[in-house]
Amino acid sequence: MSTFVVFDLEFTSWAGALEQDWSAPGQLREIVQIGALRLGEDCSVVEEYEALVRPVANPRLSAYFTELTGIDQAAVDRDGLPAARALGDFLEFCQGQSVLSYGNDMVVLGENAGWARARGEELRSGFLGAGFLNIRPWLNAVAPVTAPVNVGRLWHVLGLPRPAVAGQEHSALFDCHSLAAALGHLRATGTALPEGCF
C-alpha cells in the first residue's frame, strides 16, 4: 500500500511574533511539538507520531504560547525530548515518503536541525530520504474557502465533522487530523492529490 505523511509543528511564540516574523531579539522558532500521520491512499490513518521537544534558547514557554496551544511548561519539562532526538525520530518516521505540511513547516525543521548541529548534536536521520511539500497553495486553489484559515480549522470551513481525536486547534496532532480530513474529503469528492504525493 502506498502511503504519505502529513505533519504539523508547534514552535515557540510570543504575542506579536507572527506579525513581526519572529524578528525580535531572542525570538527563535524552536519546535515544542511535532505531530505526524502516515496516511494511506484514501487518506486513512495508518500510523501516528507525536513528540514534545524541549526548547534550548527559550526553555521557558511564554504564557501566549501555552494559551494558544494548551501545552504547558510542566508537560515539556516532564515529557520533552532533546531536539536532536525528536528531529531524528521524526525524520526516520518520514524516510522514503512524501511529507506534506499546510505551510512552510519544513523551513522551521531546517532551522531547528541547523541549531542542533551547531550545538554539536547529531541527528540520526536526515532530510534527504523524504520529499517535503507545502500543500497549502494547492489546497487553497482547489478549495478557496480554506485560504484564510489555519490548518486546525480546515475541517470546520469544509463542513466536516470535528476530528474525533484529543486536542484542539494548535495541537500538532489534532492539526494533522484536520489536514487529513480535508485531504480525504477532497479525494472522496473526486479531486486528485497533487503529483508526487505517493
UniProtKB/TrEMBL annotation:
<protein>
    <recommendedName>
        <fullName>Exonuclease domain-containing protein</fullName>
    </recommendedName>
</protein>
<dbReference type="InterPro" id="IPR047201">
    <property type="entry name" value="ERI-1_3'hExo-like"/>
</dbReference>
<keyword id="KW-0378">Hydrolase</keyword>
<dbReference type="InterPro" id="IPR013520">
    <property type="entry name" value="Ribonucl_H"/>
</dbReference>
<dbReference type="GO" id="GO:0000175">
    <property type="term" value="F:3'-5'-RNA exonuclease activity"/>
</dbReference>
<dbReference type="InterPro" id="IPR051274">
    <property type="entry name" value="3-5_Exoribonuclease"/>
</dbReference>
<keyword id="KW-0540">Nuclease</keyword>
<dbReference type="GO" id="GO:0003676">
    <property type="term" value="F:nucleic acid binding"/>
</dbReference>
<keyword id="KW-0269">Exonuclease</keyword>
<dbReference type="InterPro" id="IPR012337">
    <property type="entry name" value="RNaseH-like_sf"/>
</dbReference>
<dbReference type="InterPro" id="IPR036397">
    <property type="entry name" value="RNaseH_sf"/>
</dbReference>
<feature type="domain" description="Exonuclease">
    <location>
        <begin position="3"/>
        <end position="192"/>
    </location>
</feature>
<dbReference type="Pfam" id="PF00929">
    <property type="entry name" value="RNase_T"/>
</dbReference>
